[in-house]
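User: I'm new to structure prediction. If I give you an amino acid sequence, what do you actually give back? Let's try with this one:
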Amino acid sequence: MYQALTFYHSLLRWLVLLSLIYAVFRAYRGYTRNRVFSSTDNRVRHWTATIAHMQLVLGILLYTKSPVVHYFWKNRIEAVHSTDTLFFSILHILLMLTAIVLVTVGSALAKRRLEDRKKFRTMFNWFAFALLIIFCAIPWPFSPLAARPYFR
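Assistant: Good question. You get back a string of structure tokens that encode the predicted 3D arrangement of the chain. For your 152 residues, that looks like this:
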């Protein structure tokens, strides 16, 4: 089951990135060009948040099953000295949870705005900040904290 979860998690993480990038792009373009917040924009907002929430559920399941996380919580004194273990046990999950909260709040606020320009601005600000946090929390192959390949 753990391998199946990691497979879907790998697919979904790219969907989260792509949907957030696309949503930020649409929000920026809509705001700068003073466009009407269309039903397509609303669907992009909604599905971006939905995909992020799906990733959250899978991520929490993987977190609870992860041998790295189990090791960290059983051997905190030794594990703190390993940046890789510390990254995946504490830093990664905190940053990703923060990003999901930002996407959720941004989506809810954008949905409730009355003016189209404010909807785009709200969506852009919250989603772009969440995207920035996600980029910081990704274990890139070049990361000094925890390097992982792009595709496993």
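You can read the tokens as a compact description of the fold. Here is one thing that stands out. The chain has a mean pLDDT of 90.
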